[in-house]
Amino acid sequence: MRYYVITLLIVLFDQATKWMVALNMNLYDSYEVIPGFFWITSHRNTGAAWGILEGQMWLFYIVTVIVIGILIYYMQLYKNSYPWLMIGFAFILGGAIGNFIDRIFLQEVIDFIDLNIFGYDFPIFNLADSALTVGVILVIIMMLIDEMKNKGKKVD
Ligand SMILES: CCC[C@@H]1OC(=O)[C@@H](C)C[C@H](C)CCCCC(=O)CCC[C@@H](CC)/C=C\C=C(/COC)CC[C@@H](O)[C@@H](O)C[C@H](O)CNC1=O
Question: pTM of the entire structure?
């Protein structure tokens, strides 16, 4: 149950930062936080990552509800066995809900984290995307570790 606290905190932080940007900045306003590396830029995205499938809100609703359903199923299944996997799921769930709230009420997602990584102008994203990405990476790492453990068992 405590894993849902992680999800709730991610949703709260995500929504709080999005509303601070939406209420205090005009669209496309940009503040340089770390020269040449990190800006806060007010941006909106009606699509998914890199603006793909722009405007396909119904697709996003369906995919997000399926993602949330699968996550809650696995969080109930593994809640007493794989803590780090659960944390990964809680992060993905928090990110998915954060962007889902924007899509339901605004039909677009508020983005503001603008990084220029080694000269590549990475797409502007938000805390929900960060939680999603961290969660996806954590789940992949845990599955790889579990895979290697099983391989070790088979060898004996
Ligand atoms: C992060 C998932 C995207 C997020 O998916 C969601 O909401 C989920 C719950 C629902 C979607 C309808 C379905 C996911 C499609 C998968 C996808 O797209 C491939 C993702 C790869 C990913 C590795 C996991 C790379 C990274 C992306 C970015 C940087 O992330 C740090 C760029 C973010 C900016 O383009 C920003 O404008 C995006 C905007 O905020 C809306 N966000 C979404 O659609």
Answer: 0.93
